[in-house]
Fold this sequence. Notes:
Oligomer: single chain
Structural class: mainly alpha
Number of helices: 8
Order of helices and strands: HHHHHHHH
Number of strands: 0
Largest sheet: none
Amino acid sequence: LGENAMITPESIERNIGVSKDYNNFELIDALAQKDSLRAYNIIEYFRQNPKNNPAVVTVMALFGYFSDLLTLYFAKDKSQANLMAMVGAKWDIQFAKFQHGMRNYNAYQVIEIISAIRDFDAKSKGVGSRQNEYDLLKDLIFHIISAPGNIDF
């Protein structure tokens, strides 16, 4: 950047390729809050920058978040300290995305979402679909936000 230059989020994005507004952490936060507009904007950014945002990494992050969320639902000790320890959160700010997720998704919805993530994984590998992985990712985001949680056992 040059001597005495100020480092900004834009300069980091331009030189390193990581955006502070469009990354998997922000996508998970948007989904935890059911902010569909923000989630779709992030997915569109990923589509425009596939080299820096491979769909396989995104789906791994989504699976990690929703599987952690599911474990929280079935924890015997529901104290915040225990729940934070279960997901490896050291600070309240790290745990906030799980609190939002537990408010916005019930356990049945999370089970359905994990099933949709597994379906995405198969389709992205060509099983039953020839769609572009970012089109599949957009469909997955829709399914996550609108999951009814109708599970038949």
